[in-house]
Amino acid sequence: MHTDLVAALDIGGTKIAGALVDGHGQILVRSQRPTPAQRDGETVMRAVEEVLGELTASPLWERAGALGIGSAGPVDASAGTVSPVNVPGWRDYPLVRRVRQAACGLPVELIGDGVAITAAEHWQGAARGHDNALCMVVSTGVGGGLVLNGQLHPGPTGNAGHIGHISVDLDGDLCPCGSRGCVERIASGPNIARRALENGWRPGPDGDVSAAAVAEAARFGDPVATASFQRAAQALAAGIAATATLVEIDIAVIGGGVAKAGDVLLTPLRKALGDYATLSFVQRLAVAPAQMGTDAGLVGAAAAALAKRTDAATV
């Protein structure tokens, strides 16, 4: 059988996307459903099966040699289970087994969504050509993934590089994860907006209280909005510098909704990085915006599936 394609699933709290992807990262067939996130686990799985049903109905399906899943986490790749925070019906849900059944027995590779986006950026995006990279997703939460020695480094359970839960403020706010002063508690979109509101920022006539609205206010020089982004940038810089010091990355790629703030985030981030990444071997660390956009999860899941297929072929 000629297997030159892989299937990919990108599973999050708002959408379940699927695709058939070739060896160059091109999406040839795609399917999507809204995630029924507040429904029971079987209802969520039915949406996954509908997406897979559209893929298996394609004449290209028979060329798929493996399937990659990038899922909101936590995931446990060693057990094949997922427990996405924003999908309460799935707790230790046996996603790999259920997907394998729906995908006609294809080999399945599961990684967290931050790791999937990292795989995409390393394969086709801003981290291309870098052997040691950290890619971050700064949005409702803060996730990430690592490339070390030219290889994706998901770790045993698929969660390595989860920079959002490095503590950067020892006496900081309690984070929902149970720790204190986490990067996510300071730098995620909702926390940027919350801090701005607590410090006296007021939204415009449209009442928009999102991080995007705070970014727009900062762009026009609002001091409270600017300060909230500077605080987020400082937390991100501390987390990036800690990671770079630990494993010697040479680029940090920043994606996710909050990264759309552009220079409002990146300028203070680069400045703060100079304050934290001070040792000689981390001083040349580059910071770049992500390039892969909304298809990053699918392309990264495909990259993981291609790697699994290549590994299997060389055994």
From TrEMBL:
PROSITE patterns with a match to the protein in the record: ROK
Which InterPro entries does this UniProt record tie to the protein? ATPase_NBD (IPR043129), ROK (IPR000600), ROK_cs (IPR049874)
Query: Which domain of life does the UniProt lineage start with?
Result: Bacteria
Q: Which Pfam families match?
A: ROK
Please give the family membership noted in the entry: Belongs to the ROK (NagC/XylR) family.
For this protein, the record's PANTHER family field holds: N-ACETYLMANNOSAMINE KINASE, ROK (REPRESSOR, ORF, KINASE) FAMILY
**Record's protein name:** ROK family protein
Q: Source species, please?
A: Streptomyces griseoviridis
Classification from the root reads: Bacteria, Bacillati, Actinomycetota, Actinomycetes, Kitasatosporales
